[in-house]
Amino acid sequence: MNRLLYCCGLLLASFSINAANLWLERQVGQPWLQATSDDAPLALQNWLLDQQADHWPTRLNSLFQQTYCTERLEDVGPFATSSHFLAGDGRVLLSQQMQRQLAEPAPMQAQQWLRLSPEQSQSSQPVYLLADRARGFVQSVMVPQQGAPQTLWQFGFLPPQSVAGFVAPLVVSTADTPRRQSVLVLPARNPFGVQFLDPSSGRVIPFANPSAGEPLQASAMPAVLDTDLNGALDRIYQISEDGQLYRLQLQQNLQVRMSLVADLRQTGWQYTTALTASRARWPNGTGWQVGDVLMFFAQSEHRQQLLVVKIPELQDSVVGYQELSVQSLDGGPASSHRGWRLELTGSIAAMPSVMAGVLYLPLADTMQHCAGPSKMDKLLALHLYYGNAVYAQPLLNVDTPVAGKLSVKSQDNALMLMVESQSIVPKMLGVRADCAGCSELLLPSQFPKWQRIASYQPEQGAY
Amino acid sequence: MKSKGFVLVLCLCLVALMSCMLWSALTVSQLSQMIAATGSTQLQQRFFAEQRHQAQQQISHNVPAERQLADCPAQYALWLNAPAVCELVWLQTTATSDQPGQGSLLVRMQLTGDTQ
């Protein structure tokens, strides 16, 4: 934990001229003050709100009361720390929970950062990438052991007014290029809807076949896949803002083959948050179907829905919006073999995770009033392929914000789902393929799981 | 006298010929039986070798991996953004005097973190 905070400190220090002045926020959603100062780092200025501005005190106070019910901004003295926010010198640093409240209807973390490996950054010094969703840029910052942090490059990837999605820097390697190199995949307003950046220099890496077609109106963070498991990306999914889902197949020398796989256009719905994709296989009646499963969100003015779409490897037709089963929280397994969609009752707190075929989506309960600091979030747990509840309830109450990384621990001959050090699900379930929407208890003895790729008879002494 | 000797020699030749035919027929049937048995024996040996290989797989949790895969192969109960890692493992069962060896290329998926 100390090392993590130290890394955060190093990163944020890069945005402050005076390295001693650090304003930090822990991943669990509670602010943490390392040193007080009049200056806050630039990286936090999106959420460092001026209390003295005309409209903010009223809004912040109502927000505090709405979120935590117990604390008021006026009760906090200079540089006081509370369990939920940090205030000082006429300014306040909000916790992630409050940021989410403010950022409706697309509440995601404003900033994401990633440390590059030495091969990716081509530098012996630690280099970080920081993506700023609100301002729509990606920055590369080198933090040397001694001396001031240095900004290596900065790249604005979208017009700020169109940025409404979650941004996570992603460094992957392209397949079959003359030299394997890392690239940063970002959304773009070009015919493919994506662009590649060299993470060491910030330069755009052009595609070999730049199409002369109309630019794709896409602002979602694309999903990347490595279908042949060679450690290099070879497939990208990107969705236009109005709901046309494209598969981009990367070929030799960055040639791109683009095909429409789903047309989910529906009046009033926008697709601007990040896509999540994974290779998967599922029974199709006669055998197993291999393909990709995509998870993403659609947003209208005050509504959000989760969509899960199955794209077979050899797809025969484009998936339509009406072909997806409409799921409800208390509904049974989806009847459509194309996928399903579900309207969400809370706001998305983090990107979905899938464990043993169960989709876990942390939701912030925006309708909660004065319920105290406990039960801040809910965890939606559904069957990935059928969208029905796997546990007794589809929405699991969680006593802690599910912003940290999920982990699994074995205890009492069962697997327990944890966030930070707190148990969320005492007995994890996994999906079963022998019937629709079925699940089973996961046992520690089932791991490690083996999957045979090839079998052979060794021969010795034969030439 | 001469004709009696001729008949005797002829009978002896006939008996020898019949013996040869009978012997060769017996040999051929024995051979074919052996050939038939060889097939089933081989299948049996392969079956036992496979069984031995699978038993070895169950206890080979700590066999060093050839390499760690960047992602897990397609599976139904998939793990995504989750504490799971997939590794490529060569597993080889050595041959014994009566059973052939067996080798396979496997993907081992194990949970990381606090699980182990």
In short:
The complex is a heterodimer of chains A (463) and B (116). With 463 residues, chain A is mainly β.
Question: How would you describe what is shown here?
Answer:
The complex is a heterodimer of chains A (463) and B (116). Chain A is mainly beta. Chain A has 4 helices and 34 strands. Chain A is 8% helix and 37% strand. In chain A, strands 14-15-16-17-21 form a 5-stranded mixed β-sheet, with no helix packed on it. Chain A has a 5-stranded mixed β-sheet with strand order 18-19-20-23-22, with no helix packed on it. In chain A, strands 24, 25, 26, 27 and 28 form a 5-stranded antiparallel β-sheet that branches. Chain B is an alpha+beta fold. Helices cover 49% and strands 19% of the residues of chain B. Chain B has one helix at 2-58, and strands at 67-68, 84-93, 102-111.
Strand order of the largest sheet of chain A: 14-15-16-17-21
Rg over alpha carbons of chain B: 31 Å
Low-confidence stretches of chain B: none
Portion in strands of chain B: 15-25%
User: Going across the major beta sheet of chain B, what is the strand order?
Assistant: 1-2-3
- Work out the number of β strands of chain A: 34
Mean pLDDT of chain B: 85
Question: Biggest β-sheet of chain B, characterized?
Answer: 3 strands, antiparallel
- Number of helices in the DSSP assignment of chain B: 1
Find the structural class of chain A using helix and strand composition.
Answer: mainly beta
Going by helix content, strand content and strand pairing, the class of chain B is alpha+beta
